[in-house]
Write a structure and sequence with these properties.
mainly alpha; de novo design (two linked rop proteins); 7 helices; cell membrane; transport; Gap junction epsilon-1 protein; gap junction channel activity
Length: 205
């Protein structure tokens, strides 16, 4: 791929053809990623080290932590961010290969339809991620986790585990849910903006 294609691709990703799309890129690329990268590490970085059960033994702690966290929240949210970026990246790669200028995307019906489809796919992926997050993490992190250690062939089957910084994690969970909702709203608003431009209610950029 030539440098011109790479430049067109990066410009398309950073400067979508709609005003709301540009705001979405700013929100998604700076605020959401910063929140996850910096604050997410501060909240979840040492969780496994401070997760302790009764009795406080390494094998019990490790077994129960794996049961408590089938996937760590940082990994889940990082995968969510990457997957949600894929539809837009494919579209802008296509636009770069076809030498489509950003201002021309809303002028031709086929380009507009393809772009709307990529935005709609982002909405679907965000909704699926929202549902998965509910299944994996719920809406609240309790201070005590009851772990089933029967598989370790212990004398006891259920043990109590202490979850560190559970209140901070609850706040972080709500924040990530909120970010997902905001992103979905921005995507819906972007489709609405495109429709208004196509119908002539708004001037094209």
């Amino acid at each position: 791929m030539s440098p011109n294609y790479i430049r067109s691709f990066s410009e398309g990703c950073l400067r979508p053809p709609t005003v709301i799309g540009q705001f979405h890129t700013l929100f998604f690329g700076s605020i959401r990623m910063f929140f996850l990268g910096v604050l997410g590490f501060a909240v979840y970085g040492n969780e496994a080290l401070h997760f302790s059960c009764d009795p406080d033994k390494r094998e019990v702690n490790l077994f129960c932590y794996n049961q408590f966290r089938p996937i760590t929240p940082q990994v889940f949210w990082a995968l969510q961010l990457v997957i949600v970026l894929v539809p837009g990246a494919f579209f802008h790669l296509y636009a770069a290969c076809k030498s489509i200028k950003q201002e021309d995307i809303l002028q031709k019906s086929s380009y507009t339809g393809f772009y709307i489809f990529s935005v709609f796919l982002r909405i679907v992926l965000e909704v699926v991620a929202f549902w998965l997050q509910i299944q994996l993490f719920g809406f609240k992190v309790n201070s005590i986790y009851m772990c089933d250690v029967g598989a370790l062939e212990k004398k006891f089957n259920i043990t109590r585990c202490m979850v560190p910084e559970h209140f901070e994690k609850t706040i972080f969970l709500i924040a990530m849910y909120t970010f997902t909702v905001i992103t979905v709203i921005l995507c819906v608003a972007e489709i609405f903006e495109i429709s208004c431009r196509r119908l002539g209610f708004l001037k094209t950029q």
